[in-house]
Amino acid sequence: MPEIHDLHPRPQLVRDDWMDLSGPWSFAFDDGDVGLSKRWFERSDVYDRTITVPFPPESRASGVHEPAYHPVVWYRRSFQVTAAEGTGDVLLHFGAVDYRARVWVNGQLVAQHEGGHTPFSANITQALVGSGEQVVVVRAEDEPRDLAQPRGKQDWQREPHAIWYHRTTGIWQTVWLERVPSVFLEALRWTPDVDRLELRLEARLGRRPPPDTRLKVRLTLRGQLLSEQVVAVADRLVNTTMSLHFVSTNPERDDILWSPRRPNLIQAELTVLVGDEPVDSVRSYAGLRSASARGGRFLLNGLSYYLRLVLAQNYWPETHLAAPSTDALRQEVQLVKDLGFNGVRIHQKIEDPRFLYWCDHIGLLVWEELPSAYVFTPEACERLTREWLEVLRRDHSHPCIVTWVPLNESWGVPNLEGDPAQRAFARGLYQLTRALDPTRPVIANDGWQFVAGDLIGVHDYAPHGETLRDRYGTPEALDRTLRTVQPYFRNILTDATRGEEAVVLSEFGGLSFAPEAGDRWFGYGTVRSSEELLARYEELVQAVLGSETLIGFCYTQLTDTEQETNGLLTAQRIPKLDPARLRAINTRASRSMPGDILADIHHGAQDHHSAGHE
């Protein structure tokens, strides 16, 4: 049975005073969409089921397990909290509700939000009644057949088909309460500057502060004080730059910079002072690292870095998009690391912040990708852009994230070559992302038509290593492939021309393991034995590593997911192959960047070092 653990649901802005509302809630389907007119937010008699939050009603773990179309669902539960005394407030937080949510507390509407993968909050102080029982009600609307809605791999057909999966409706991340003072820190944004050895902080307060408000920030690394600063606070937004006083013991500064080999994390303590009185205290962390792409290379901390990624759906049989537990998120990260990959491309999903927490702490690079819509309309453009802005805001401070990917395989922009408006939208997402975060590479549309980006991602499911060598082995072969070969019936370069963009084979492989001829499968090539799977995997990876020009790869995929049986692990996270043999293949030297493996050998003893734990 899935378990809920107590890792804070917002790990980069932590207060001790919070309450997890996961667990049993009353629940009801509203297939006739009558709940609003009949004021279900004021009633208790219409809730005829019990659901375990945060597991979606389509999943077995929820206790409901109804995968059919149910566009509108309602949740209700009571909780005990005393109305804030004096100057304090109570906030109600939702990690993610798919897709459109309304929230009432004690019959009073306190929040509305659209977007199925991003968080929202409400100050519920004025809605609380005394010190007795409080009631929260959530209405979630998730139209299964709305193709203008960012939905990722959630199927719009009644039953999963091809590469799409069962849906995740309603609440699928943690719901939690937090008590805050009248002057409190609402959001933090950390931006590292490796060259200057500085951290820039943007802090936002929940309301305008009174006179004589100050913010005290203390940064440490493994107990060593790096910087301490007290900043005057005149408005809700506070900006400051902190120089890190650190004497490195090596020329590459591996003892302070964040990387998969050495995931050093700087611990932060922040205190809001009014006069000399501390009124709010939070804990946070940041990583000092840079990520860029130039001159045909991907650079981590200014040095060429070879990307060894695996595609991950992060979907579980019992819980769908929701994780079975926070420990399952940790195990997922550790599995990827143990298989010899240095990064993960989360596919068509915005992950729980606690997954990113473990990537930060264990040391795993992340490509973050927006779940797609499947039509190109003004409404789809608006929805995608709005949700992408919320993603960029939520996840900016995670050092593990090194690439933003707003579009995948032209999903939602199906006529990218023929329609100038679709090309303009893709370019616009690229430019918008670069404007809001110039510190990371961006790929406007990964895999197929390249219209804008700092990297070029190519998806090629050629079944044999020889074909991959012919297409990508030399600069001349790569140039020919990008200009004339259509690996998946799509031109890679449209009206764009390649400059010095680095090229990553960002999907390949996809070998389906089906021991019996009648086994259910979906993949890009089928093998019948584990020995054949290992041999074919080694053949494909070795061909990619042998390329003079590719600067990384992403193998499809980490786990079997519903009808897709092309994972290196089963859906239950059981390896199909010896992890040690996979690790040996994945960590071999690449021809385009042989020095990368020398660095791995040099730092091999510290592969699992997690300097962020103090």
TrEMBL record:
<feature type="domain" description="Glycoside hydrolase family 2 catalytic">
    <location>
        <begin position="296"/>
        <end position="447"/>
    </location>
</feature>
<dbReference type="InterPro" id="IPR017853">
    <property type="entry name" value="GH"/>
</dbReference>
<dbReference type="InterPro" id="IPR006104">
    <property type="entry name" value="Glyco_hydro_2_N"/>
</dbReference>
<dbReference type="InterPro" id="IPR006102">
    <property type="entry name" value="Ig-like_GH2"/>
</dbReference>
<dbReference type="Pfam" id="PF02837">
    <property type="entry name" value="Glyco_hydro_2_N"/>
</dbReference>
<dbReference type="Pfam" id="PF00703">
    <property type="entry name" value="Glyco_hydro_2"/>
</dbReference>
<feature type="domain" description="Glycosyl hydrolases family 2 sugar binding">
    <location>
        <begin position="20"/>
        <end position="139"/>
    </location>
</feature>
<protein>
    <submittedName>
        <fullName>Glycoside hydrolase family 2 protein</fullName>
    </submittedName>
</protein>
<dbReference type="InterPro" id="IPR051913">
    <property type="entry name" value="GH2_Domain-Containing"/>
</dbReference>
<comment type="similarity">
    <text>Belongs to the glycosyl hydrolase 2 family.</text>
</comment>
<feature type="domain" description="Glycoside hydrolase family 2 immunoglobulin-like beta-sandwich">
    <location>
        <begin position="184"/>
        <end position="289"/>
    </location>
</feature>
<dbReference type="Pfam" id="PF02836">
    <property type="entry name" value="Glyco_hydro_2_C"/>
</dbReference>
<dbReference type="InterPro" id="IPR006103">
    <property type="entry name" value="Glyco_hydro_2_cat"/>
</dbReference>
<dbReference type="InterPro" id="IPR008979">
    <property type="entry name" value="Galactose-bd-like_sf"/>
</dbReference>
<dbReference type="GO" id="GO:0016787">
    <property type="term" value="F:hydrolase activity"/>
</dbReference>
<keyword id="KW-0378">Hydrolase</keyword>
<dbReference type="InterPro" id="IPR036156">
    <property type="entry name" value="Beta-gal/glucu_dom_sf"/>
</dbReference>
